[in-house]
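Lecture 7, part B: from sequences to assemblies.

Below are the input chains for today's worked example.
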Amino acid sequence: MRITSFMVFSQLANALKRNMEDFAKLNSQLASGKKIEKPSDDVIGMMRSLDYRLSINNTGQYKRNIDEAAFHLQFTGEVLGSVANSLLELKELISIGGNAQSQENRSFYAGQAARWRDFLLDLSNTKLRERYIFSGYQTNQKAFTYNSTTYHYDYNGDLGEINVLLDTEATLSLNIPGSNAFSFTMNGQLPTQLPDGTPINYTQSTDPSTGITTTTVEIGNAGDPEYDTFTFSNVMDMANILSFAFEYKDVDGSDLNADPDIQEEMALHRMAALSLPLDDARNQGLNVQAEIGTRQVHLNDQKTRLESSALNLTNALSKTEDADMEETITEILKTETALDALRESASRILSQSLMDFLK
Amino acid sequence: MSLLGLFGIAKSAIFASQTSLSLTSHNIANVNTPGFSRREALYAVANPVSFGGNLLGSGVTISGIRRYYDRFLQTQLWDQHQNYGKSYALNQTLSQIEQVFNEAKNIGLSVPLTDFFSAWQEVATNPEGFTQRSGLLLKADSLVLTAKQMERGITQTLSSMNETMDTIVDRVNAIASEIALINGKIVQTEAGTTAGTAHDLRDQRDSLLNELSNLIDFSYYEEENGSITIMAGMRNLVSGETTNILSTRINEEGGKDIYLDGMDITGNVKKGQLGGLIAVWDTIRTNSLNGLQRLIASLIKEINILHRAGYGLDGTTDNDFFDPLQLSVKDFSAGADMTATITDFSQLTLDEYSIQFDSANNYYVYNKQTGALVTSGAYASGAPISFDGIEIVVTGAVTSADKFTVSPLADVIKNFEVAITDQQKIAAASSDTTLPGDNSNALLIAELSENAISNLDDATFFSYYRGLVSTIGSASRAASDSLTFDDNLLSELNAKRESISGVSLDEEAANLIRFQRSFEAGAKMIQISDELLQTLLSL
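Predicted structure of the full complex, as structure tokens:
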């Protein structure tokens, strides 16, 4: 082939251009640390890295959701622990104060019961940040408030469960509705008479919209002078009835009976009648705590799983889009050597001319 | 033979050497002129004279000047210039569009879209929290902003492509008139001589054709008188000394159609930068622009449907999260008008429709994407026509030449705004009795990110978007690969051409010596002839 001056020049120019392009690309890879700098560098790799990044982002969000839920559940668990303790104390009051005779003693126990009642009310209206945690969806309402007309404690919340996403399809509720934590249904064989043989009847009815179970207690036979009936729908109600019973009074503050003897008997019957529901309430509380425990375990498992998958994803992402520094630097050195050689050979070829040898 | 005849032979030798020397210096002078073909003088033995019954040589004559030139190679080169021009245009525009979708540098929708759905999860975790709600509005705003920036990036590229096409068309016209001019000169110069002697003019014309082939694909043939006829898109661009004007017109989609001598030749322009731009314009519009618009339209549609069903903290419902979709109507009719409204968002296909009429006063609604006939019937002015959740009303007299298009996509990103300004109205709850803790609607919206969307061919928002990125990435990759290929092939062909037509300085240096020596020898001949003559004269 006949080689002309222009060919030599343009070949050299092309080779220089290509080399400099390689050089610039490697340099910018080194600067950014990424081997994919635009989708066309590696379309499949880019798609994979988009996938990985989406998953990493989602995983991060799920982890934040889990942290939030775990925080809520742990806090709720602690509150419910205090509820169980309070119920135990109330039960204790019945057994040690139930046969107190003197007015002072009875007032003392009544005061104690009232104190636990108020403590339970405080617990039921616990706030986490701006949220009442036992009100279901009605998080801006106190869960329980005292109704001075009925002398009972009313539930203002609902059965709403605030779910958070733990994964694409998995959700978990981060709250316990107050009707579940502070109200309960008595299960199993209910006694038909008190230890002293007085007939007793527990009737329960549940409001499906709030989940609150109202229990009506009837003691004695209708028509008897010591016949007594009262209702409660939550633990505050029970503590309230108990507190008044120590004083031989009904929840509205009136005497249970005009006859002091019957009055005392009725009060003692009330205390005895409340003993079993107190146990059940405590069991219910323990069940809820167990449920919280199960959810926490679930959250922990999920978090561990997400963390390990996040680690895998981050590794995969780095493998897909990060430039291998040693490889890039080696490549740069290689290109540099090639460029040097090109310049060297070019300088020799270009300086060769017959013109130089003519005089 | 006379002694004076010797002078004649010596003179022919000197003249021949001089001609060669002048061609050699012309070659050396043009060593860097692109498109120059080297020259060489062709020597022939001069007609012999009869002397004493013997034929004696009478020296040398220049029988012609050869231009080293391979017509077949030149044609190949023009072909390759056309391919190169196309690849160049494709690569330039696609790499610009690619930057709009450059997810490798986190430019694009991926991040704002993920953030938007994450913000819904944050609202779901804390439905009564104002921080989370205003966070969501911020993320929605940045999604809107990014979508608008991306659309602007694409439409700017499209309009700069339109401008480039105009510039190219102007340049083609300029080249065409120059060629016509040169055609005339070549005919003049070569008249009465053998064709192909106007070397410099031909080199000049070839250079112009090189440039032309980079811009547009053409075919050509050479007339006997040396002028050439150039045809682009099957019509004459240059014929002898006359040219036809190439021009552009805006078409229905906003792109440019190419007209030559008043005829639409767009479909026949396949190569050169112009062919590349025409091809890629459509690709960018249908893939990148319409794809992005469809993604945003389906996002607006799906989010709004769920959001309207939910309740805000203030108990209000039926609120749109984004400004609702609107239809844009294009009117290609003489005397009729059309209005279009969306009657059922959930039925929208997000496709574009065209409404046409026949001479029997029937209307036909076609889906522009699938080409399918959607509905048809007898036309009555003012009577509503309903299909796919859209109701249109055409009024006035229609003819078979009239046409309307209705599109939910055309202005979707232009109208893309967050409708909610009061964060209380963000509908996280499913009922007004379960406020404020109810997050079930927010959860539904957050989970939308994982759902298959029917308007996106059952892809999720993310996988559809990924498809857009991968399409543009692959196209850009293919364009840059073919540019490299065409560039290499072009260099190869150029090298071949240079090998034949190019100037080698070494060769010319050798020639210089050669012709210097023969000039000197000729001169010596004259000196000797002179001495011989002196000898005779001094007798």
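Note for the exam: The CA atoms of residues 294 and 409 of chain B lie 6 Å apart. Keep this in mind when comparing with the next example.
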